[in-house]
Automatic annotation (TrEMBL):
This is Uncharacterized protein. It comes from Marinomonas profundimaris.
Length: 76
């Protein structure tokens, strides 16, 4: 049996919330993307933390769902 780390929409939102991003679980991914980009514009000092989170989620040992990957790409 192969065990894979999987990042889905819920995990992604939880990680952003843990960073202090003003997102909720109720938001869809497009809303999350818009909210985080606005937040980063208002608080640019948070950008390195979001980028580090995105890099961590894109490790070779982690599988990121395609819809989450497209939002991560918007933060790059």
């Amino acid at each position: 049996m192969m065990i894979v780390d999987l990042i889905d929409e819920v995990d992604f939102k939880e990680k952003l919330i843990a960073l202090g991003a003003p997102v909720t679980q109720e938001q869809n991914l497009l809303e999350v993307q818009t909210t985080v980009l606005s937040w980063l514009k208002a608080y640019p000092e948070q950008t390195p933390f979001v980028k580090d989170l995105c890099m961590e989620m894109q490790k070779d040992t982690t599988t990121v769902l395609p819809e989450v990957s497209s939002v991560i790409a918007a933060f790059a």
